[in-house]
Design goal:
This protein is of the alpha/beta class. The chain has 10 helices and 10 strands. It folds into 2 domains: 66 residues, no CATH class; 191 residues, 3-Layer(aba) Sandwich (Rossmann fold). Strand 1, helix 6 and strand 2 form a beta-alpha-beta unit. The protein is globular, with a radius of gyration of 20 Å. The model has no long low-confidence stretch (mean pLDDT 96). The chain binds S-adenosylmethionine (SAM). S-adenosylmethionine (SAM) binds next to loops.
Length: 274
Amino acid sequence: MRYNDTSELEISLLLEAIFQKYGYDFRQYSEAHIRRRVMNRMAMSGLSDISQMQSKVINDESFASELLQDLSITVTEMFRDPDFYRSLRENVLPLLKTYPFIKIWHAGCATGQEAYSMAIIMQEEGLYERTTLYATDFNPQALKRAKEGIFPNSLMKEYTSNYQSAGGKESFSSYYISDHDNVIMNQSLKKNIVWANHNLVTDSVFAEVHLILCRNVLIYFDKNLQNKVQKLFYNSLINGGILCLGSKESLRFTDLHEEYTELDKKQRIFKKKY
Ligand SMILES: C[S@@+](CC[C@H](N)C(=O)[O-])C[C@H]1O[C@@H](n2cnc3c(N)ncnc32)[C@H](O)[C@@H]1O
């Protein structure tokens, strides 16, 4: 591989060092994303160049952990993109209802809001008892917060509005209890959620599932890596299973484009062909 400039080579060596020392593989993430985050961390840490950063990453585990947080963007919301959840209720749940048990995989679940949103929908549709939700991420800190299900009270206004726009049937506040500055999600939502550490780049098929949500994750990967992860999803879905991507993500340029039909083009919901 030829590098256009020195910093490109330095970033590539930095990513190689992270992989060799800690096993996290960012080598096929989008260059623009990695560059932005690395430069940002360099400025915040007072380091003068990327090679200095390389040596710090190798010798200082807490710095490496900080960099991992930077590289894994964990921004998320309850009922993020409410129209997506409306479409899910309308177009996907009637299919899921036909199965005696339902397995759902949230790949890249961050701090868990997407899995809690799905748990709420499954409860409202009377499907929760026969559903298992696997919620995975490679970021241990995000997963810990997801499992706790404790979120700032200050976010509830926005989450309530998302929930209502998404076609919510109850009062959103019935799904948590308030505790001073935070809310704690109900135990009845957590019951069937299995939280697990899984790296989409280095780990293999997770389980055979009926529905996969991997939203706002692939956007950080380069085309080759997107293709590789799409194969993982394809192999994890039952025939007729459903794949949901984020609003800026697509199957269009992947090898598996022909293997799915579009259930909702705008909301990026695809059905694996039989
Ligand atoms: C922007 S969040 C998306 C959260 C949620 N899916 C949503 O749409 O709101 C991206 C998540 O992908 C996770 N992620 C990035 N690379 C990953 C990988 N290789 N394996 C597993 N998770 C990964 C990050 O840790 C982060 O929590």
